[in-house]
Design goal:
Largest sheet of chain A: 5 strands, parallel
Radius of gyration of chain B: 19 Å
Shape of chain A: globular
Largest sheet of chain B: 7 strands, mixed
Strand order of the largest sheet of chain B: 1-13-6-5-2-3-4
Strand content of chain A: 5-15%
Oligomer: heterodimer
Strand content of chain B: 25-35%
Structural class of chain A: alpha/beta
Chain lengths: 616, 313
Amino acid sequence: MKMRFNFDSFNARHTPEDKVAETFIDNGYYSRLCGLNHTLLLGPRGCGKTTLLKMLTVTARRTWEQRNSDAPLPDVAFTAIYIPMDVHFQDQLSQIKTSAVTDPSLLDVVSRAAVTISAQQAAIESLLDRVACEKLSDAERESNLAFKLINAWHLPDDIPSLGVVRLLLSERLVRLGELVGQLRVAQMTSSSLPDWIHLDLLTCLNFACDAFDTSFGLDIKSRWALCFDELELAPSWLVATLFSDLRSSFPRLLLKLGTSPNPSNLGSGTGSALNDFDPIKLWAPPLKQRRKFCRALSEQVIAKRISTDLTPEQLLGESDWFGDDEDIVPEIEGPKRYERGSEEWQTLRDEAREDPTLRSYLISKGIKPADPSPPAGQLRDTVLRKIKPLVFIRRNFSKYDPDTKKRVRKPRKIRSEFFGVPAVFDISDGNPRFLKRIFEEMCAQAGAQPDNQTNVERNKQSRILNLISLQFHNYVRGIPGSQAKIDGNDVYLFSMLHSIGKFFSTKILLGEFSADPVSSFLVSTDLPPNLLRLLEAAAEHAAIIRLDAAETPYDSKLINRRFRLTYLLAPLCQLPLRNYSAVPLQTCLKKYPPLKHLAEKPKSKSSTQEPELFHS
Amino acid sequence: MTLKEARQVPAINWEDEKETIFLAAAGYESRGPHAAERLLPKANDIEKLTFGFAENKAAARILVERKFASLGFRLIDDVPSASGLQLTQILSDKLRSSSGKQFRLIVDYSCMTKTWYGAIVRHLFDIKDNDTPIETYFVYSPARFAPPGPPGVNKIAGAISGFGHLSSPLKPSALILGLGYEAVRAMGLRDYIDPEVTIAFYTDPALDQKYRAAVARNNSGLLTTLSPNVIFRYPVADLDYTNALLQNVALGLRDQYRVIVAPLGPKPFCLLSLILSAENNGIDVWRVSLGEEITPQERVAAGMVLIYRLIFV
């Protein structure tokens, strides 16, 4: 089976604001972001930060209002300036630092100038959008504004229009690039640099806002929001500037910052400023909120790829075995869920017949293994609903061997694996990029079927999910910097995560039945710094999901936090789509050769051996 | 200096009397001295230098160093693989001492790191005060096919020093991948950069078709996600054709995109990428590597030598 899409082919960064608005689905956080306060939008790659920030812009909001007059967006009392960062720009800034010059402070000046110019360009785009959307078009006023900007930003005299200012800024960036080239080969001093290179970023942006409101006769006290996206890639001086200078000097500017869950640059210089921020965490949203968002997004993909009449359930069918089932409507006909004769009842009975540890558990809860109907209302929720995904996943991926009196993993051929709407929603972890990826593949598979069949068979769904799980594993493998030397051993993030997954699945599938097995880990204070760095990378790329709430002020450190593997790795690692207890990370790594010494004292010998991947 | 001419030539022109320096790398690959053996005239007063890596001092290097010594090369040892500074300093000194004379530079980049020959290319473009043209030959000995090792992880990813330009992040990125035969690497880089547009180049025909097959096999996960019209095949032995193709694609993208070329495959493609980037603003060249974790692998010369001549004025 060939996969047609990759993880990053669905990125709002590449999409113009009006197009973002055309497909926007609120994940439940947009109204908070619209508040008249500083906001920290936290989440891994692909979780929708860029979409949310772009939806604050004038163009996006106008497009939405034109298309959805019956569903107005929450009001915003500010004008948003969307300012992107990315790994390419980050690398270009770091390249400046490799220039061999006698005065290293020059490099810092150049780096600041590069960021300032790109922010000025972003501001001009916002001003132009506002002029167009609000029909403020007035040649004299625009000329007046452009004239002010040309003067204040030390641009060369030219025809005063915003379009020309945009062009002059592009030219300035080229000049700056040439200057970097000159720094590489010639001795230069601060005095030989052009004066515009020392312009201050926030002063420039604040001036643009003032000049705009003044020129068009608007309220000069109205607020503007600087929406910095992918702030984790920004130089640390920028983060420090935003947090330290903004509050004291520029009261009309708001910050809407999109960043990864554990940005390493957020600690420096932020101080007490973080107290002023509303932290919105975009990972692991509540189940109902997540499924509602997933449903809307999957319907959008299906409508685009197949038909507006087809529901996710018609495409993939139902399955309520894998995780929580509280919002799944049972079929009307047949016995009620968990009652005698139901699918749940039969599965529990069959499994209890084979598995003595499940039998013992049911007896301890006052449930007859031969007739596991819920004897009282409370037991259904406290016991049966809780154990259902565990019973199913044990039955799905492992079996009791009466000869050895142990549980063993099932061969791949006789497993049914993951399928159906709720499972697919949950496997995506509510991450829109992952979910789109899965549904695009499912729709492509449906399109390839004979007789215009639109439902994707369970085994094909399972194969797609397994392949996507494997592809994500390879994606993690390809992340630069996902390898570290720890206590003399080579540690690879992808294999470490796999080992953690194997630890959990061994406990859940092959151990004694427990209604509360381990499926998450705690990060303790005594872990090596390089291991923490790997975990930061894992969180940034949504490979691990933080389970505790984002507190105020937000603390980006991983220490004492609880994490689980992304559900996207559940098919590969054979894990349930539900959270259970946590153990220290060291415990999960005791069979991972490069780090097993963390659980076993004294230290083991140096090893570069990779653990074996799953055999099935 | 300005690049006046760049083209593939069948041989080095020894006819004109010129001050000449030959730079090569002494690694663990036995193909290291092959181009020098093939190309150097028997009697010569050429200054010949070979640079030994500070890392990965495999036993096989002794044989390579002996061979270079027998050809009259002086060894400059312990040069860090991630820095081309020593090479450019030597080149700079040589150019200064040869001021006013006709000058010929031969660089055998077969065993050099991208950083080393990148530094030389960058240096040639950065020279400001040279009053005579520099005739430069970049020579390359292709190796016989050897299967790729197990996939590693991408440790370092970023522009080669001197080949990253400043450009606005408001403009989207386009990634041109020169595919190599190692699995995961290209896909990992694409996922990391997350460009709006990805274009793949791979060598077909290759010098050995087993190489082409390995490239296709180990990049199948990537290639299936790309439209056929963004997959370009190039004949690795035809540098002029490859250069024209790469230039057309990269320069065609430059107005709309910040272009990154990531040459993960044969070195001649990387050389062409570096020259393209040095000549044109807005085209960066990235490297992806395992850092110092490279496992030494023998590479035996296939026999031919590819020669690319650049005239700087």
